[in-house]
Amino acid sequence: MDYREALEYIESVGKFGMNFGLKRIERICELLGNPQERLKVIHVAGTNGKGSTVTFVSNILIEEGYRVGIYTSPHLERFTERIKINNEEISEEDVAGLIEEIKEIINTVVVEGYEHPTEFEIVTACALKYFAEKKVDFVVLEVGLGGRLDATNVVNPLLSIITSISYDHTNILGDTIEKIAYEKAGIIKRNRPLVLYPQVEEAQSVIEKRAEEMNSKIYYVKDAEWDVKEDTVKGIMFDVKIKNRIYKDLRIRMINRYQVKNAVTALMAIEVLRDLGYSVSDKAIYEGLEKSVWPGRFEIYKEDPYIVLDGGHNVQGITELIYGLNKYFINKRIKMVFGVLKDKDYIKMVDELTKVCDDFITVTPESLRALKAEDLKEFIEERGKRAVAFDNMKEAVEFTINNKDYDVLVFCGSLYMIGDVRRILNSIFKKEEE
Q: What are 180-200's pLDDT values in tens digits?
C-alpha cells in the first residue's frame, strides 16, 4: 500500500460517518498492543482554543528538549499535519505502513461483530501506535469532537486541559452549555489533575461536579493574573503571575485577546507538569511561547494589503474575529470572504460580521454540509450589505485578489475552507514570486 492508497482507504471509511463510543477504539488498541498505555499524554478538549493551546504546550516542551508527539484535527493543507513529532509531520511512507497494518485489524474488529470503526478512530489509532513506536516523551492530544465518547478518550493522561466552551455541534453534543460541558468533562480521569480555562458559570459547575466525582484537582486559569503590555498586529507582550511565579515580558506571535488566555492555560499546564516532577525551564517557556504559530487562527498571511485567515466556525469564534478586526484594523476598508456549513448558527454569524464589513464574497465550502453561496449571499443582502457569490473557491480567491478594493481581506469560515484558501493563495503568490 502506498500513501495515495492509504488516503483512499481513510476517505472510503468516511462513509460510515460519526459513530461515537469507545468500544471499537478500545478493541483496536488492544489488538495493537495498547500503545496508549505507553504514552504520557496531555489531553486537550474544548470548543475553541484547543489547537492553539496544544501548540503552546508542545512548543514549550520541545524547547526543553523533550520529544513530543502532537495530534490535532482537522488538517488544513495535508493529512500529515495531523500527526507530528517535534513539529515534523509524519512521513507519507509511515502513514502507508500504519494504515496497511491497521486495515487488517479493522477487518478483524468487524468480523468480531463490532460496527465498522470510523475514520477518526482509525487515524487516532495510527497516531497512538506511531507515537509509541517512536518512544516520544509526551503526547499532546487534541480531542476531535466532544470528549466523553471521542476516540482520543481511550487514554489515561497525566493531566487534562479544558479550553473555552461555547455552542457548537449542538446537534451532537447537546443544545445547552451544560450538556456540552458534560461531554467535554468526560475527559477528566480519576486522580488526574485538570487545567481549566475561564468558563461561564453553567459550564464551570458541570465540570467541577465531574472533577469532584473523579477526585481530580482543578487548576483554575482564572486564578492567574495577567497584564497585556503590548498588543499589535506583530504580536503580544504580557506579564503573568501564576502559582506564585511571576513571568515578565512573555511574547506570543499569535494575536487576538483569546491567545493570551490560551497561552496562560498552557503555562498553567506546564506548572502542573512541574508539580508532577517534570523539569521545564523558564527559558523553554519564553522561547516555546514566542515560537508558537497556528495557521488559520487570525493568521496574518500577508501584508500590504493585509490578508487575514481565520477558521472561526461558530458564533464565539466569529465574535473573537470581530474583536480582532476592530482592535488591529480600525478605520480600514474590510472585505470578507465567507463560507459556512449549514448546520452552524450562520444567521448569528452573519449578524456579527455585518457589524464590521459592508462588502462580502460568499463561497460554498467543499463539504456535503455546506451552505450554498447564493443562499448565504441572500442573508447578507437582506441586511443591506453587498455580496457576490461564488461556488468555486479558486475563482472566488482569484477574483478577490485581483480586485484590490480593500485595505484588509479576510477569509473566514470552516477550517476546511481555510485549508483550501491557503493552498490557492500559496499557488498564486508562488507564481508571482517566480
A: 999 999 999 999 999 999 999
In the chain, where the domains are located: 3-291, 299-433
Do residues 374 and 421 make contact, with C-beta atoms less than 8 angstroms apart?
no
Amino acid at 220: Y
Among 178, 236, 246, residue whose Cα is nearest residue 210: 178
CATH 3.40.50.300 for domain 299-433, yes or no, is no
The count of other CB atoms within 10 Å of the CB of residue 392 is: 12
Query: How confident is the model over 142-169, as a mean pLDDT?
Result: 93
Distance of alpha carbon 169 from alpha carbon 143, whole angstroms: 14
In this prediction, residue 434 carries a pLDDT of 44
CA 46 to chain centre: 9
The yes-or-no answer to whether 3-291 and 299-433 have a common fold is no
Determine the longest span between alpha carbons in the chain, in angstroms: 63
Retrieve residue 59's grid coordinates.
512548543
| pLDDT tens sequence across 13-57 | 876 667 788 999 999 999 999 999 999 999 999 998 999 999 999
C-alpha cell at 1: 500500500
**Alpha helices, DSSP H, located in 72-200:** 92-111, 119-133, 170-173, 177-184
Q: Is 138 exposed, middle or buried (0-12, 13-18, 19+ CB in 10 A)?
A: buried
- Give dist(CA 276, CA 115) in Å, integer: 39
CA distance 61 to 279: 9
Q: Flag whether pLDDT at 241 surpasses 70.
A: yes
* Cβ proximity of 106 and 97 under 8 Å: no
Residues in the chain: 434
DSSP count for the chain of H helices, then E strands: 15, 17
Strand partners, 300: 308
Question: Which residues lie closer than 8 Å to 351 by C-beta, 6 or more apart?
Answer: 383
Q: Which residues contact 218 (CB under 8 A, 6 or more apart)?
A: 193, 194, 195, 196, 207, 208, 211
Specify the DSSP class assigned to residue 289.
H
- On the CB side of 152, CA atoms within 13 Å amount to 25
Name the residue type at position 117: P
Q: Reduce the DSSP state of residue 215 to 3 states and report it.
A: coil
pLDDT at 152: 98
Query: Which residue shows C-alpha cell 451532537?
Result: 172
The reply to whether CATH 3.30.830.10 applies to domain 3-291 is no
Smallest CA-to-CA distance from 390 within 403, 376, 411 is with: 376
Span 270-282, average pLDDT: 97
The one-letter code for the residue type at 73 is S
Dihedrals φ, ψ of 227, to 5°? -135, 115
pTM: 0.93
